[in-house]
UniProtKB/TrEMBL annotation:
It holds the Pfam family GGR_cat. The keyword Lipid metabolism applies. Gene3D superfamilies: FAD/NAD(P)-binding domain (3.50.50.60). Keywords: FAD, Flavoprotein, Lipid biosynthesis, Lipid metabolism, Oxidoreductase, Phospholipid biosynthesis, Phospholipid metabolism. One of its GO terms (biological process) is phospholipid biosynthetic process. GO terms for molecular function: oxidoreductase activity. Residues 210-271 form the Digeranylgeranylglycerophospholipid reductase catalytic domain. This is Digeranylgeranylglycerophospholipid reductase catalytic domain-containing protein. It comes from Candidatus Nitrosopumilus salarius BD31. It comes from the Archaea.
Length: 485
């Protein structure tokens, strides 16, 4: 008999939400263990640098979780309310609002509170465990193994289902032995290096494009954040989460173009220094920030894993590459996926079928709720990464109408299929390239959404579906890259 009904590998946000969802849907009737590599006083920490993140989450995603599994977030885990996100063009002449109302979270306090809630629901924890792999019986995953860092002794626990929430570079996923459908490793072009500071500051020049206490600000700029963006997210009138993300190969290209040798850390310092609204910045030494006030980490910016289950094994959050491809926001997708996954787990256990077939519905449910749009956004992200600052500024100013902004605000690909047909004058070859690129990604997005809406109902149809997907994506990625030449 298994030690637990469910083992959740990884005690971060995706892991604890999933545990709470399983507990909710099972009326607290299942035995659940969360295994975390971090010490108990720093639960769910992503790395030694802390919980490197923009700390922002939409109200819509939090409400999705609260309405279904009755977990309500309040102060102090919510540190500041925001009205939305404003994305500024490189020339700052155009600002596009998206994502609606949201919250700035305290990522050091949140896991502490999450863990208290979990314990009240009867969920067990074990800390300082370095998991090295899964335990198998035939084609089924039946547990986890590793080393207890406290005792240096081997660690082994068995369960009916293992949920992988160990993060973007998951060793469990990388070494998965019972599936040819789950993608094991991520392409480095689908990773961004991100870094940020949590700081107090004195008010400098009043400029709402540089700091706005009511809005999370995003700066698109290929010189300061090549392949990514800079962000200035308010935590109070005099407190900020400021950082940026870059794609490594595009950073190398930028350095060559400008004759520089910058890395993420040097760009972070430059981005902070040039912000005229922020004067005398200093790292927060508040107890709830002290282990989390600066750092660099990697985040995925692609569609979720093409298949997220195998026999006895499921993935959630960063392990499944769920952060939004267009802005690398990972908290919202993790809340949605964790909430969905809890219901899928309980149904599979009630049906006594934890095979690949028995767990398959999770793929379908996540795609229906959220995942249908991510491949199109991945393609759109690759197009924007190829553009120069001039092209991005022109495109944002001239090609984004009200309907497109509404799409972006919902986290969907804007519809550019009518570009050039609505009496729009596109001047110059550069701008025709932008229009052609946007029109192309829009058309491909429509196909991709349809394809995801026809995700196979069971594993037998997956290989054909996936082969068609990759043929289309490979062709589209090559075409989009050509727009940047």
């Amino acid at each position: 008999m298994a030690d637990y009904d469910v083992i959740i590998a990884g005690g971060g946000l995706a892991g604890t939400i999933t545990a709470q969802s399983i507990s909710h849907y099972s009326n607290q009737n299942l035995k659940i263990l969360i295994v975390d590599r971090s010490p108990e006083f720093l639960p769910g920490r992503k790395s030694l640098a802390g919980w490197v993140c923009g700390d922002a989450c939409s109200k819509e995603a939090v409400d999705y979780m609260t309405n279904r599994i009755k977990i309500a977030w309040t102060r102090p885990e919510i540190e500041h309310d925001v009205k939305g996100v404003m994305a500024y063009s490189p020339d700052k002449e155009t600002a596009i609002p998206f994502d609606g109302a949201g919250f700035m979270l305290n990522r050091q306090k949140l896991p502490e509170i999450q863990n208290e809630r979990c314990r009240k629901m009867g969920i067990e924890f074990v800390f300082e465990i370095n998991l090295t792999g899964l335990i198998y019986e035939g084609q089924q995953v039946v547990g986890v193994q590793g080393i207890d860092n406290k005792t240096k002794q081997p660690f082994k626990k068995t369960s009916r289902i293992v949920i992988d929430a160990t993060g973007v570079t998951s060793m469990l996923r990388n070494g998965l032995q019972n599936s040819t459908k789950v993608e094991k490793r991520i392409d480095r072009r689908d990773l961004e290096s991100t870094g940020r500071y949590i700081m107090y500051f004195d008010q400098g020049e009043k400029d709402l494009s540089e700091f706005d206490p009511d809005y999370c600000i995003i700066h698109l700029d290929q010189d300061i954040a090549p392949g990514g963006y800079g962000w200035v997210f308010p935590k109070a009138d005099n407190k900020v989460n400021i950082g940026l993300g870059v794609e490594k190969s595009l950073l190398e290209r930028r350095n060559k173009r400008l004759g520089k040798k910058d890395n993420v850390e040097s760009l972070m310092k430059e981005y902070l220094h040039r912000n005229k609204a922020i004067k005398n910045p200093r790292l927060s030494e508040d107890p709830e920030d002290i282990n989390n006030n600066s750092g660099v980490f990697q985040v995925s910016v692609r569609r979720q894993n093409d298949c997220m289950v195998s026999g006895g094994y499921m993935m959630v959050g960063d392990s499944a590459w769920m952060p939004k491809p267009i802005d690398a926001g990972g908290i919202g997708p993790a809340l949605i996926a964790g909430t969905i996954l809890g219901n899928n787990v309980v149904k599979a256990l009630e049906a006594n079928d934890v095979s690949e077939v028995g767990l398959w519905q999770y793929n379908l449910d996540f795609i229906k709720e959220y995942g249908y749009k991510t491949a199109g956004l991945e393609l759109f992200r690759r197009l924007v990464q190829q553009m120069s600052n001039e092209q991005i500024s022109y495109g944002m100013k001239h090609f984004l109408g009200n309907m497109d902004v509404e799409s972006i605000s919902k986290g969907e690909h804007p519809d550019f299929s009518g570009l050039g047909k609505i009496g729009m004058i596109i001047r110059g070859a550069m701008n025709k390239t932008v229009a052609d690129g946007l029109r192309y990604t829009s058309k491909q997005n429509q196909w991709l959404v349809d394809h995801y809406n026809n995700y196979p109902k069971n594993p037998s149809g997956f290989d054909e579906w996936n082969k068609t997907l990759h043929q289309r994506l490979d062709e589209a990625f090559a075409k989009v890259e050509a727009f940047g030449k």
